[in-house]
Amino acid sequence: MAAQLTRLIEEQNTVWQRMQDIQQLAERENRDWTAEERANWDAAEARLTEVSADIDRLNKMAALDKIDRGQIVTTTGEPDNDRRGSDTEDKAKRYSDAFGRYLRGGMDRLTPEQRSLMMDNEVDLRAMGANIDTAGGFTVPDEFRNIMTETMKAFGGLLGLAEVIPTGTGADLKWPVNDDTANEGEILGENDEAGEQDIQVGGRTLKAYIFSSKQVKLSMSLLQDSVFPLDSWVPKKLGERIGRRAARAWTTGTGVDQPEGLTAGAVVGKTGANGQTTSVIYDDLIDLEHSVDSAYRPNGRYLMHDNTLKVIRKLKDGQQRPLWVPIPAPGFPSTINGFEYTLDNSMPVPAAGAKSIAFGDFRAGYVIRQVQQVQTLRLTERYAEKLQVAFLGFSRMDGMIQDSSAIRMYQHAAS
């Protein structure tokens, strides 16, 4: 994968340089582009888009291979201080094996010991009023949950940027919010009394909205085939579906019976001039960057849809230097005006009145709450006549703006 990534980066830079040469030649000769130059530019731009997309896919695949063990929590219900030594590791391994066997054959295929382990991790869903084929689901092993979480990160760029708060239960979580950027200290004269100015701390509540993967159906033949990587395939598919829906909630959610997304909660830092319904200019991006307090800008970055990046790739500064700079070498990111960017295709595309670009320190500005008891249902009887088994995943999450000064949005003109 590393060799392929290096080759693609080299091709990306070569194609980008070819496009710059076409433009610079016409500028030096002070003439319009020829038909051949336009055709070559269009072909190069199409290839650049393809190569950039391939680089993004490879980076996502690499991210999926790097499981973050730092946020693993117990799924057995044991207190943290009791989870130590080889006994805990052995029990986790036995539960993981039992869960994998449960996915393939259901509870009937388990040994008495494995059945007991599964029942220790059963979650009663009847109180939720769910109309399902079984009375309860099961919390998933750490490895399964981490695959799902990492897959969700790949499909929702904001999840990898924001502050993520994992909790063991779904009870309402009170969360403080504060904007103290307008306040400052003072200079005291000798023997002067210090003034007073309280910190205004507001309170918000993080909920635990239920995100469902919808049903994922598999044939009995696949389940019986030991070669099929069920233990990794199922969490990836469940994570993809939940991740896509959660990403859309975190970017465009209304905050009413769902998370508060960026477009609903973040302040607009720059609005395009009349006529800029689908476009953005260099000055707009400069204004957007400086609408974020300088205390946050060292950690600032852009967040946008891939279609928005396509618009920005054509922009240049006052010296006709492109704002978008491709990857110079493996290990270095592409940048926009010197800032890194993240693509999240749940963000709005350029359109009249759309808030298509976010800029700022997302870790300081946005918080995501994840309840760690990810649950999986195995629906055996519902599709039995088709020799199929369905899987259904649940994850409870929320998100909101926690520091309104840290993030600003670019909004296109309404007309």
UniProtKB/TrEMBL annotation:
Superkingdom, natural source: Bacteria
Main location per the UniProt record: virion
InterPro entries linked to this entry: Phage_capsid, Phage_capsid-like_C
Location of the protein in the cell: Virion
SUPFAM superfamilies in the cross-refs: Major capsid protein gp5
Compositional bias (Basic and acidic residues): 80-91
Gene3D superfamilies membership: hypothetical protein PF0899 domain
Domain Phage capsid-like C-terminal span(s) in chain numbering: 136-411
Stretches for region Disordered: 72-91
Protein name: HK97 family phage major capsid protein
Organism: Streptomyces zinciresistens K42
